[in-house]
Amino acid sequence: MSVDVLLIDAFGPLLHRATGRAGVGASALMRRAVDAEVRVIVTDLRGAGDVEDAIVKAGIEVPTGVDIVPSSAGESPQERIQAVADRAGAHPAQSATVVSTPWAAFASVEAGATVLAVAKESAAESLQQSGARGRYDTARVLADDLEEALARCGPQTFAFTPDRLNALMDDALKEASKGLETNEIPIGSTVVSGDGDVLGQGYNVARSTGRPTAHAEMEAIADAFPRHDLKSQDGLVLVTTMEPCAMCFGAALELGVDAIVYAVEAPENGAVGRCTPNRGPDSVHPRVVGGVGRSKSIDLLRDWESDHENGGFVSRLLESIDA
Fold it and tell me: Which DSSP string corresponds to 111-178?
């Protein structure tokens, strides 16, 4: 299991925002997480209330080992998740959030965390489309299923620590460097198993082959397929030096990729935030972790641009991200 931190959005899963009443099983959920040796932090992702005061008024027993962290004014949910992860000495990708609304689920995915939801059944589809990997009627129901829920959030045998993320990206950057050496736009990718083994690798060869679909991610997937049944793998990770486009993100969804790790954002055609999972009950939204090895990827793109008078897509990308 690769989840080290459970971040609970207080209003919704633990407290009814409108009435201030305690949710069913609020204490049980926190206690079960502490017993599972997961770091538990309670905060307010919306930043609109005094969490500690509300918990006291609701009479919720807070187990020893649970941190209650107030929100900061003007902080976005993504910034809040990052701040909480920093407090725990972890990367957001090591976290699972417990939320009750689609916007909080989507914000969690954007921050790099995985998501569990405590909400009514009527919200199930919108929560799934926003990234939730499980919906539970009450905090108590989630507490009873917490071990399996956390396993769904982090099926890898390794944690997404900063060092591990950088090591994963280093392999993709090596592929990008191969592309640079052959006059291709330097974008590289790897497909990694839930145990951390590289199953496939590749770099963008669209220029030399004339195939517009020959993106690095598609090449890495194609490289892995002859030797591995990717659709039967749990915890697959797609690592790429640039944010995937809609085609590559869609391929990841089709394969059931659990996590996408990328280096540099692609405002012109990046698909993060634009693609949603299939509507099937077993479909999940990949955990998305951006900015890993960003400066190294940008350096490779700059090297390529310096040798090409008409930089095209690369020049527009570098200009758009103020690199």
Answer: HT-EEEEE--GGGHHHHHHTTEEEEESSHHHHHHTHHHHHHHH--SSS---HHHHHHHHHHHHHHHHH
- 217: annotated active-site residue: yes
Kindly state whether residues 166 and 229 are assigned to the same domain.
Answer: yes
Overall domain count for the chain: 2
Structure tokens at 210: 């004339």
Q: Among residues 110, 175, 184, 217, which one is catalytic?
A: 217
pLDDT tens by residue, 210-233: 999 999 999 999 999 999 998 888
The mean per-residue pLDDT over the stretch 117-134 comes to 90
Listed residue (200, 211, 96, 217) closest to 153, CA to CA: 96
Residues 103 and 170 in one domain: no
Domain of residue 15, CATH code? 3.40.50.1000
